[in-house]
Design goal:
The chain is about 45% helix and about 15% strand. The protein is α/β, with parallel strands linked by helices. The protein is globular, with a radius of gyration of 20 Å. The two termini are about 20 Å apart.
């Protein structure tokens, strides 16, 4: 068994768009001049290594205090032993940034982040550092753009010596006022900052409209950077996957089933084939970063849907991460210290009860 480290011991606008493009060109030149850029097939291998994953820690009280954390050190091993290879760590950082102009993340926040990354790696899990502030970025992209870029400047520096099994995801589900055109500018600027200190790190990026499978054609990526994994999310049909969810327009609609009929399966298959056609055309690997069905749905339907989506992704050679370990849509019942077996078996069919 690999050693883990306890929390107490561990620590211890146009102008800027042109600047971003110039910085990106410079950083890519630097990667070629100073370090060897991974061959394109390596990013596909890296994507295969991600395998089966799960989203973690986005809504855990750990970010306020270790004393109130639900997620504990032992849960990294639980995830690994449960048949998963990756954790996608959902970071809500904007509320933790200091004042302008530096927007510095404090020591306590970094101590928590380092504890997560170190213990995940110690349990032989890959780690995706996911900037999850999609709502704030969608509501006020221009107002939050300086803090968004400053976060990535700090994170790129902080994790620059981390192993290649630590990946960066630029932004979860760009949406609303962060339009496709604007998002293409923002991702180029953030990628430029990342590449200055992490020229060979694999970076994950997806399309606008909540990483929708229907908006890949609007995603613009730098052709020269072949160390990118493209992510999409899948929650179709929303009437089923979000039934009873208080934050959605399905809050008052329950009792919707997913029977796995030929028509239901064909809908998923066609959506995924469309994504795969885009991926083949552009020679980019695909990571299904989120999928699942909310807890108020019929459990048999939820398990049937989850299993079908996971297997459909795997047949196409995609990696995936289920939404999520704890909080809602859960695959693990932390208070009772046990897997939600129908969902766990749907995700990892060879898991032991």
């Amino acid at each position: 068994m690999k050693a883990t480290i306890s929390p107490m011991r561990f620590y211890c606008s146009q102008a800027w768009t042109r600047l971003a493009a110039a910085a990106l060109a410079f950083s890519l030149w630097g990667a070629g001049a100073g370090q060897s850029e991974p061959a394109p097939d390596n990013v596909f291998a890296r994507n295969r290594e991600l395998g089966r994953g799960v989203n973690v820690l986005g809504y855990d009280p750990i970010w306020r205090s270790f004393d109130h954390a639900r997620f504990q050190t032992r849960h990294f091993k639980v995830i690994k032993d449960g048949g998963f290879q990756t954790v996608r760590v959902n970071l809500h950082t904007l509320r933790h940034l200091g004042p302008a102009p530096d927007f510095t993340l404090g020591e306590a926040w970094w101590r928590t982040a380092d504890w997560i990354v170190t213990n995940a790696l110690a349990s032989d899990l890959r780690v995706i550092v996911d900037f999850h502030e999609f709502m704030a970025m969608g509501e006020d992209p221009e107002g939050n753009q300086p803090r968004f870029l400053t976060f990535w400047r700090q994170a790129a520096s902080h994790f620059r010596a981390s192993p290649s099994s630590v990946l960066f995801e630029i932004l979860n589900e760009p949406c609303r006022k962060l339009t496709p055109d604007l998002w293409n500018q923002y991702l180029a600027a953030a990628l430029a900052l990342i590449r200055q200190q992490n020229p060979t790190r694999t970076v994950i990026v997806g399309p606008a409209f909540w990483n929708s499978v229907d908006h890949l054609d609007q995603l613009q990526l730098p052709e020269a950077d072949r160390n990118l994994i493209v992510t999409v999310h899948y929650y179709k049909p929303m009437a089923f996957t979000h039934q009873g969810a208080a934050w959605s327009d399905q809050r008052d609609k329950v009792g919707v089933l997913w029977q796995g009929t030929p028509e239901e399966q064909t809908t998923v298959t066609r959506d995924f084939e469309k994504v795969q056609a885009w991926a083949t055309k552009h020679q980019r690997p695909i990571f299904l970063g989120e999928f699942g069905a909310y807890d108020k749905g019929d459990m048999a339907s939820r398990a049937r849907y989850t299993a079908f989506v996971a297997r459909a992704a795997e047949r196409l050679g995609w990696s995936w991460a289920y939404w999520q370990f704890d909080s809602d849509f859960i695959v693990y019942d932390i208070p009772n210290d046990r897997w939600v077996e129908p969902i766990h078996r749907a995700l990892v069919p060879d898991s032991q009860p």
